[in-house]
Amino acid sequence: MSLIELDGVGRTVILPDGERLEILRDVTLAVEVGEHVSIVGRSGSGKSTLLNLMGLLDTPTEGEYRLDGRATSGLSQRQRARLRGAGFGFVFQQFNLLPGRTALQNVAAPLLYCGGRDFWRRNRLAADMLERVGLGERADTMPEKLSGGEQQRVAIARSLIRSPRVILCDEPTGALDVQTGTEIMDLLDAVAAESGATLVTITHDTMVAARAHRHYRLDAGVLGPLDPAVLVPPRQVIAS
Ligand SMILES: Nc1ncnc2c1ncn2[C@@H]1O[C@H](COP(=O)(O)OP(=O)(O)OP(=O)(O)O)[C@@H](O)[C@H]1O
Fold this sequence. Notes:
Layout: E1 4-14, E2 20-31, E3 36-41, H1 47-54, E4 62-67, E5 70-71, H2 77-87, E6 88-92, H3 103-108, H4 116-120, H5 122-132, H6 148-160, E7 166-170, H7 178-195, E8 198-203, H8 206-209, E9 214-219, E10 222-225, H9 234-239
Parallel strand pairs: 3-8, 3-9, 6-7, 7-8
Antiparallel strand pairs: 1-2, 1-4, 4-5, 9-10
Bound molecules: adenosine-5'-triphosphate.
Domain ABC transporter: 4-239
Pfam families: ABC_tran
GO molecular function: ATP binding; ATP hydrolysis activity; transmembrane transporter activity
């Protein structure tokens, strides 16, 4: 049994003029515990839509999504929200940090609504997470005073704070230069390996994709294998 199983999944929306737009078509994908899978596609190919489905932010209009062998189609909004909060960490291109809150407050934010023990020890957990991503000294700094790479580290610390089983990354290096992007991917790989988390990375960057164990390509909403010849080994580019 796979952790994530998409079985003939589609996502169609009805546009205001009544036209049907098929964003994803017949997507079948299985992701195992601890794997790193990448999905490469051009702008508009449906990457974010696919990631949103996996993260229970959106629902398929066709097919079935099973998480840990359990069908997600019958879940209530409340059950989906609970599973999402406990099971998934998200890392986005634009960091999505709360302005006017310190790095520590940003990292602790997912624990504000979880209740129980973790609510009361949220600041200590957040400080530990910031240490883990190399920003222990910057806990009291506002995001706007941090570099792009540092902001993404804060976002990674925030994504890890509830010990997710899956980290979903949407263009995690898209707003960073190549060197900083490489450091961020090194960090993501390291923290995922340490915690045994599964990593799914969607990107248009074949160098970022090359780091995964398995690679897919999304083309106009259709998922298929990626030709390994297009993958650029990361070290080779840094060295040149
Ligand atoms: N709710 C929606 N209503 C109408 N169109 C949508 C909706 N969601 C997505 N789309 C369209 O579906 C296509 C795929 O969107 P998606 O954001 O998944 O692509 P993407 O591959 O992530 O693109 P990018 O790399 O530019 O972010 C786009 O053409 C987008 O405009």
